[in-house]
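During the no-cost extension, the postdoctoral fellow (Dr. R.K.) reprocessed legacy sequence entries with the updated structure-token encoder. One reprocessed record is reproduced below for audit purposes.
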Amino acid sequence: MRFKKFLISIILVKTIQISFSQDMYAPLNLEITDSSLANTGLSWETPEAFRIESITHLNATPFTGVGNADNSPVAYFQRFSGQMLSADQQHGKIIESIRFYAFYQGSFQPLVFMTSGIESDTIPDIANLSNCVLSGPKITNPNTFQWNDVNLFNYSGTIEDTSQASTVTIDTTMDVWFGFIISDYVAPQFAMGVDNGPAVDGYGNMMSVLVANNNTNSGYLSFGWSTLIENNPDLTFNWGIELNLISNNSLNFYAVYEDNIAISTVTPACDGSEYCTSESAALGPRPVGFHEYYITSVYNDGESIASNIVSTTISNSPPGNFNLVEPDEGDIYQFSENEINESIRFIWRDAIDPDEHVLNYNLEICRENVCWDTTLTQNEDLLVGSFCRFDIHVQDLIHNLNIEDNQNTIIWSVLASDGYDTTEVDDGFGTFSINLDFLESYENFNPTDFQLVNAYPNPFNPSTTLSYYLPYNASVRLVIHDIVGNVITNLVNEYESQGYKSVQWNATNNEGQSVSAGIYFYSIEAGDFRQTKKIILLK
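Re-encoded structure tokens follow.
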């Protein structure tokens, strides 16, 4: 079997404005194949009218071969009346190919006839091929003890012409005969397989003994048609022949509905030219909770009724366990006044999310009853191999934790969140010490130069902290602008006293509206001081 790759494209609900039709064939037997948070999978059977179907009178896979004992050429055919075809709803389907079960070697020439049902035209004209509609290439070396498939072509007057693929459709006002002229076999190794019966007499067992004649279109003359049973009452079998039909309807795509809302489309893999009967779709991550799904078929003329409805509850798996790495328990950091711009590195093992969510980490740092936390997104700037690393300036720790003493014990911890659940670090928390021999009090620590500190986190989502130092009182203007210079928001525009300052930006503009992901710049004007730095917003 040949299968094509399934394509899924997300569509807006408003793009499907098609009325439902009872006359359109719907998908069948919808099932849920995966209901994890990372992916919801569906599978279903192709609509009956669209899949390749085989018409045959066979009751089982052929088990033996039957043939003519004198090695003469023979025609073995099956026949379907227009009434039979109508009852099976085959009208309008294209006759695409024919297959046969070979037991031994021989030459197999495929032919398809349509007869009007009028008495004089009820049998195929083997000699002149006057009511032949399809033929195909002669198969001279078939695969034995298995099925052989042969594509059919419009009959143009030349029996093996393959210039035009079949466009012949089933007309249920006519009978269809299909089969093979078989020659070059060696009895008793009879080439054509048969089932074990019972025979559908007059339909599944038609035959004609032939004689070569180069003056006919087919190269043969027929001695007339009979059945296997007429030739031998013990041969109550049907020929190992099947005729393959494909839909003449145009199935454009399948519409996938979740909770009565169209969420995606699926391009058919079984497009009417493939030997397949099933479809599938991977919808990717879906929201946590209870959901119902159904599928429709969308044709040129409308949309089918819904398939059966299936339901599932999608649950979340929390982030995996992880642990703190650095600072190690009991580490002591010593900084002089000249090292105030140095950083302390915080490292923890990356938590693995079973549902493949991008995680957010909340890094919390505390001194006594003062805590400072920041949210960090699991991205390439944070990750180093299987670890997360984030550096914090000593001066930022001093000001955000209100550090006033020379020696300080710091507690730190990390939480991992996938947007649904939160996992605490295995260690609970870690401790380390900072010794600042030069620091007598917070009030005595004053900057000597203007400075715009690097934003943290950066990249960020949903907010970042912007800090700066003022060596003396000054009018300060701190703005965010986009990559072309448009002002997004004014964060600070006032006269401020000397010292350390910080402000948070939550990725909104002056109107309080969320801005899109991308590159932004933050600029400070304080007295004669000017400086600009880059930040990146992730969504």
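Confidence is low (pLDDT under 50) at residues 1-23. The longest helix spans residues 394-400. The remaining legacy entries will be reprocessed before the final report is submitted.
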